Amino acid sequence: MAIPGTLPIIGASWDDVLFVLFAAVMLGSALLVVTLRDIIRSGLAMIVCFGSLAGIYVLLGSPIMAATQVLVYIGAISVLVLFAIMLTQTKGGPARLVFQTQWWAAAIAAIAIVIILAVVVGSTDWQASAERASATTEAVARLLFDEYTLPFEAVSVLLLAAVIGGVFLAKRDRAPD
Amino acid sequence: MANSLDAYLILSGFLFAIGTFGFLARRNAISMLMSIELMLNAVNLTILAFGAFIPALQGHATVIALIVVAVAAAEATVGLAIVIAIYRNRRTPLVDEYDAMRQ
Q1: Contact in structure between B16 and B32 (CB atoms under 8 Å)
Q2: Mean pLDDT calculated for residue range A148-152
Q3: Which CATH class is domain B5-97?
């Protein structure tokens, strides 16, 4: 049985359907991340958000970036965040106040950012092509190890510095004997 | 819809704004770091959207996004280590109780 090119009833293409689906899941779970009272649950919602963002990367035609998103964000950063949550949870359970007292000012700032960005995006001609086209993974690798060798090496030094800094900051001070 | 640059840009604008709200409004230091991660992801989505729709940026956008991911990982490591170090001294993860400089 062949899959039809468009959705049977509505007539939207599969790309559009997937885009709307991933976008809705991503924005919904991002809202959960910033509003849930229990911080463990907001950590888990963050994983869902990263996963659907990986789906959007696939729709953009960049499978290498989707794989990196799953490996680094879902595999490494989320686990790091969940460990930090468990290390810093207080016995009394989640805090009574989720937001600080001036959260309405933050909400106004966020809405202003959305409006400004929407106006800018709507009023600018980006000279974009009508079709998505993305570089193959091989082309990306050639760029990364040829033209961008210096940033690549700088990133490796940065990661080394971050490892040393993380261990130094989080290690327990030895009690004086 | 999936074939227009504007849709991706507005989507990442929404994600960035949600991250901004979380960073400014949450009391828990780790929630603030998670909001920063959301904002970095929004920026990455913007970079990749430009790379997919503007031919001159094609491969470069993916390379830049990969470097941004590495920098974000470094930032998360050091940020969480700082939060854990502060928690060890003050016994709370809530940032509005870090008021030692005020007294």
Answers
A1: no
A2: 93
A3: mainly alpha
Q: Name residue B66's amino acid.
A: L
A81 CB-contact burial (10 Å; exposed 0-12 / middle 13-18 / buried 19+):
buried
B78 CB near a chain A CB, below 8 Å?
A: yes
Residue at A4: amino acid letter: P
Q: Where are the domains of chain B?
A: 5-97
Taking only the tens place, the pLDDT of each residue in B75-101 is 999 999 999 988 888 888 888 888 877
Q: Please indicate whether, in this complex, the C-beta atoms of B76 and A80 are within 8 angstroms of each other.
A: yes
Write the ipTM.
0.91
Interface test with B, best of A16, A31, A34, A155 (most B CBs within 10 A): A34
Helical spans, DSSP H, in B1-103: 5-25, 29-53, 58-90
Task: Enter the pTM of the model.
Answer: 0.90
User: Distance between CA atoms of A115 and A106, rounded to whole angstroms?
Assistant: 14
User: Is B92 part of the contact surface with chain A (CB cutoff 8 Å)?
Assistant: yes
- For the stretch B25-76, pLDDT in tens is 998 899 999 999 999 999 999 999 999 998 888 889 999 999 999 999 999 9
For A60, A146, B46, B56, B61, the CA distances from A143, given in Å and listed in that order, are 19, 5, 20, 13, 10
